[in-house]
Task: structure prediction
Amino acid sequence: MPPQPAAHTRWLVAAGFATLAMLVASGWRPYDRLTWLMEVLPVIIVLPLLALTHRRYPLTPLLYGGIFVHAAVLMLGGAYTYARVPLGFELQELLGLARNPYDKIGHFMQGFVPALAAREVLLRGQFVRGRRMLAFLVVCVVLAMSATYELIEWAAALALGQGADEFLGTQGDPWDTQSDMFFALIGAVAALLALSRLHDRQLRALGVA
Result:
């Protein structure tokens, strides 16, 4: 594995501290403390893992950047709850929508970034040959992750009752689960179509593809 340039390492450190600062800010006075914790839990888990593994298993800058953006989306949603994010209300008014769409941004990112992560792991581990099969398996992984998250939301609803309303963020939509998974699918396909070539170049720069 080629050594990482000092500038790359500095960027990672800066992004790590920025993420930590956003995490603290989002949890300072969130709308609902339990909802905040459930929404930002992936950030709390992934951030130290990335710090511990960045030397022996460095990721591509593209994936690191995607994780940073996804973390910001999660933390903003956790601070306000997805149905109350101000940016979502602005988009709702701009697009003439019936509900705050920020939740769908979150689920789009839930497909977009994990698609890059799955693609990177599959290529680096040489688990699959052929670009079509690679794309198919990446989409399958994303949909499996999205379905798992929906099961977690279901479990939260059963355990917390009305207290899970802010976490679920359905806003009265009976098809919210299906549309969440559909937006994750759109995110995965968008990542594959838009970024596969750039991802390949960055993997080659790491000496792993």
Observations:
- The two ends are 11 Å apart (CA to CA).
